[in-house]
Amino acid sequence: MLMVLSDFDRYNITYFYWKSSNRLHRALTGEGDVDLLVAQRDQHRAQAILLERGLKLFPAVACRDHPALSSYLGYDEPSGRIVHLHLHIRLVAGTSLLKNYHLPWEEALARRAIVHPGLLIRMLEPVDEALLLIVRGCLELRRSDPVVLRNWQAMTHKFARDRAELADRIPRTALRRRAAELLGGELADVVADALYCQPELEHQRHLRWLLRRHFAPHRIYNDLEAGLRTMIRVAQLLAGHLNKRLLCIPRPWSRRAPGGGHVVAVIGVDGSGKSTIVATIRQWLGEEMDVIPIYFGTGAGRPSLILWPLKLMVPLITPLFKTKPKGSSHGKISDRPPGRLYSALMAIWATATAIEKRIKLSAAHRGARRGLVVVTDRYPQNEIAGFNEGPLMPRLIGIPQWLRRFEANSYSLAQRLPPDIVIKLVVPPEVCARREPDMDPSVIKQRIAAIPRLAFSGARVVSIDAQQPLPDVIRAVKKEVWRLL
User: Fold this and answer.
1) pLDDT tens figures, 438-473
2) For the residues 7-15, what does the mean pLDDT come to?
3) First CA to last CA across the chain, in angstroms?
4) Burial, 370: exposed, middle or buried (Cβ in 10 Å; 0-12, 13-18, 19+)?
5) Exposure winner among 91, 407, 419, 430, fewest CB in 10 A?
6) Averaged confidence pLDDT in the chain
7) Rounded distance, CA 73 to CA 405, Å?
8) Secondary structure (DSSP) of 362-425
9) Spatial separation of the C-alpha atoms in residues 338 and 397, rounded to whole Å
10) How much of the chain, in percent, has pLDDT values that exceed 70?
């Protein structure tokens, strides 16, 4: 971020940081968002600098997009954090879901912007910061906004702390003079009182009404349309939150990946750490963009409604077989090939699994085409039959050809729809045996030996040593995923 700011100064980009100076250091270290306002005449040169420095434009979904605001994300490899920069071309304010008011002060604020004494960044002059704090507090602190309501205590405390800090170091006469200049004389005394007197900003109803009336000519939407759009966005916000937490339907709800989404497949034998890596990627990216996980296995992960009833029956059927036939992975395994009863039951399981994989494959790639980042735990393949998410029926006996063809068609879809990147987690057999004590050691060696042969139709494949410490594995995975985006 500091290199971006240095380039802005070198190429005479007119800009300034326009949020609270108290949180400036936190923003520059990646712990918060960086809000920069760039002069309209310099916007294209500023965007070129951001792209050149490795930041990427992540557009909001259509219903939440704003023409004067764009989001750029960058990956800080040493800390593992994603840096989020909001690039503002106009100064806008309002609720978190609808920035409906344009504050036409960009040039005046830019002329008076100062350089931070310890950081090489231009920021608001303190009197301007105080005036903007009052206006933002009155327009943003509204309980009708569900995002604000959810974080009401934290947000009101943040505004109160900033207000107290600015009141201690800014003369009232200076604030009144600046308010008269930018808002007019009739609002000057009321605005000045709002910084130094009670009540808190969230209770300044009269001042809120005066400011809304003052900025009414600069609204994007009138009150009726703004109310309707806010209601729609609230509904979409709730649907997106439900989708993120529970449903995982391949529909974008917040911010999309640039140029379309991607499918990231994490594969490896049981015990290699797939679930941990998938959860880490989802948490890391999910704070800034739309991410959904998809589980392609048949173990402890989340099954579809097709496979779920069969999984409930497994504990009832398992006691019927004292040993499992050759080719199984867990439990007591014999040298005998599958019998007819075992093959018949496994054929039902394999059919349901094939249907589930077909549905999930289509959902994963539809989501990617809609701009989502889809992270999969395992991925179907038809290069090796019998294991590593390959077809199950080739090792069974007495299965009709039409059913074998049905299963094969489902897995051939995976060849036609390869992931964008495959992350192979490579571990030695002894590590897997220690992490998965119920798994047959010979099967572990067989599956580990087969992993390098999986090409996934020429997809980009990255092998990562999962035996190294977990932070190193996570760092390597993040680096490869960010290169993809």
Assistant:
1) 787 888 888 888 899 999 988 999 999 999 999 999
2) 96
3) 19
4) middle
5) 430
6) 91
7) 46
8) HHHHHHHHTT-EEEEES---SSSSSSTT--SGGG-SS--HHHHHHHHHHHHHHHHS--SEEEEE
9) 7
10) 98
Q: Which residues pair with 133 in a beta bridge?
A: none
Average pLDDT value for residue range 105-117: 95
Which of 220, 271, 284 is CA-nearest to residue 91?
220
pLDDT at 118 over 70: yes
pLDDT at residue 162, as a whole number? 95
Q: Which band of pLDDT confidence, cut at 50, 70 and 90, is reported for residue 436? A: confident
CA 302 – CA 378 distance, rounded (Å): 13
Q: Give the distance between the most distant pair of CA atoms in the chain.
A: 93
Tracing tokens 């009232």 back to the chain, one arrives at: 172
How far apart CA 307 and CA 332 sit, in angstroms, is 24
* Alpha-helical segments (H) within 243-339: 274-286, 308-317
- For β-strands 122-123 and 114-115, DSSP reports them as antiparallel
- Report the distance separating Cα 52 and Cα 41, nearest Å: 19
Q: How many degrees, rounded to 5, is the angle at CA 69 between CA 64 and CA 75?
A: 95
Cα separation of 171 and 169, whole Å?
7
Contacts (Cβ under 8 Å, ≥6 apart) of 152 = 143
Average pLDDT over residues 393-398: 88
State yes or no: cis peptide before 437, omega within 30 of 0: no
What does the block give as tokens for 248? 């995982």
Q: How many CB atoms lie within 10 A of CB 226?
A: 17
Nearest to 130 by CA among 192, 185, 75: 192
Quick check: 377 and 293 in contact, CB under 8 A? Answer: yes
